[in-house]
Amino acid sequence: MGAVLSVAAGILVVLGLLVLTLAVAGIYRMPDVYNEIQATAKGAPLGIVALALAAMLTGDGPIIARAVLIAVFLLITAPLAAHALVRAAYLSDEPMYRGEGEDASRPGGQPVKRPHDDASSI
Amino acid sequence: MDTLVDIALVWLVVLLGACAVRVVGARSTVARILALDTLVLVLIGLLVLYSASRDVSYFLDAALILALLGFVATLAAARYYGRGKLFG
Of A101 and A12, which is predicted with more confidence? Predict the structure, then answer.
């Protein structure tokens, strides 16, 4: 049983490190701030949750309690922080990456005409 | 297992350094706030792993406080930068 737990903890540690590395790579490789927030807001909390699961496998009571608290708290607050950051970026006119090539849903770069656009006076 | 944990701790410190470099060399203020937030999160992961490897729980207290402080700090900085005021 001890060996199985040890192997499981090792796998969880490697998984958490991998996801955290992807999160940090996201802030280096992504083309604009919105994509950076997108990458780290998912990667960092999930990596820490994996590390906290590995910590829970030690079977020590106080460690399990605190690890559960940290994991739940991060899963709740990370999306809120990401939302606030994206809102700040949008309100301060942060440049948005438009990508190469044409936007398939907007041919010719024109905004899509919606049915209720002409009926705005109603 | 011990070697794995040691390598993991060193790797987390490398990630911490990468975040610190990004904090200094960010392209905009929002990117800087984001890099600081990520740095705090990586530090939390480092504390969790260290606490599990040493079989003591008090590093996790520090990690919990860092999670609380990091969230409030990110929220305050983002709201202040986006709208020029914190509340209302």
Answer: A12
Residue A106: the pLDDT is: 64
**Could you give the number of structural domains in chain B?**
1
What's the number of domains chain A is made of?
Answer: 1
| Size of the A and B interface in Cβ pairs below 8 Å | 147
Asked if the Cβ–Cβ distance from A21 to B34 is below 8 Å, we say no
Residue A115 domain-assigned?
A: no
Tens of pLDDT, residue by residue over B46-60, are 999 999 888 888 899
Q: Is B88 contained in some domain?
A: no
Any CB–CB contact under 8 A between B76 and chain A?
A: no
Instruction: Decide if B55 and A63 are in contact by the 8 Å CB cutoff.
Output: yes
- Nearest neighbour of A24 by CB, restricted to B19, B30, B74: B19
Chain length of chain B = 88
Segment holding A69, helix H or strand E: helix A61-91
Q: Is residue A53 in some structural domain? A: yes
Smallest Cβ–Cβ distance between A85 and the set B12, B30, B60 belongs to B30
Burial label, B53 (beta-carbon count in 10 A; 0-12, 13-18, 19+): buried
Of A45, A54, A66, the CB nearest to B64: A66
Judge whether A70 lies within some domain.
yes
**Please, which residues have CB within 8 angstroms of residue B36's CB and are 6 or more apart in sequence?**
B19, B23, B73, B74, B77
